[in-house]
Amino acid sequence: MVITRPNHDITTNYLSFWSQLVIDYADKRSLRVIDLCGSRATRKEFESVLRKRGGQAFIFLNGHGSAEKVAGQNDEVLVEVRGNDDVFFGTVVYARSCSSAAALGPKSVAKGAIAYLGYTDDFVFFIEDECMTRPLKDKTARLFLEPSNQVAIAILKGHSVGEANDLSKNMTKHTIQTLMTSETPKEEKELIPYLRWNVIHQVCLGDQGARLT
Fold first, then answer.
1. Euclidean distance between CA atoms 86 and 80, whole angstroms
2. Which of 18, 92, 201, 212 could form a disulfide with 145 if both were Cys (CB 3.0 to 4.6 A apart)?
3. What is the largest CA-CA distance in the chain?
4. Confidence class for position 55, pLDDT limits 50, 70, 90
């Protein structure tokens, strides 16, 4: 697994902390992890790692993005349409990044990526201010980031990419059902539309039956 973990602002710092749980799972399974964290999440290092890899790889991107690109540390563009979108050839990609599955995803698959999982619009999550320095203690962020982690964990477990996508979405749907009970505080119920938003815009492109080998 190659994972990018920029950590230069609140959003990327949260994604970085929560991604550590995926790294921990990979370590328990004795899977090789190349962790491009912080200052290592640059285009030069990212491209170098992918060009030198041997065999199939799972790429887990975390960072800001748009329809045509995903960024790394300090918003340096790591991969972009009409730039280096062929770098994913022969890989399975999951981009926890806003909107990249709208254009970069389809283009990457067209250029040889096995599958691309991501979001066709913004990936949304909320945080609790008092947990800003302790992201893993943030119960509100957990509602959004735990299901998104599930995509990567399910793929590492051996599920197909289509199954991983469904498992993640079903986890969020279960959370929504839980929040709809009468006992749920109003401020928590207000999160439901945003959880639904992520489910609607989370997609799996390419070979739905692909698995890591």
1. 9
2. 18
3. 54
4. low
